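Problem: given the chain below (64 residues), write out its structure.
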Amino acid sequence: MTVPRVQAAVRQAELPMLHAYRLWFEHARKCGGDCKRARKAQDGCENGQRLWGAYRQAYEGGAG
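Solution.
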């Protein structure tokens, strides 16, 4: 007797810190502005700086 496999497509919830980092990383990789040329995340474009700030806040345990 074979038992059929049941595969559920369950998306695992991302940790807020990892989610914020992924958003910043994807932005920085595609950014045609200052983010690609910046040596530090804080030196990127305005949107990149905002995303990096959200990551830092999540890293430190803050909401948002």
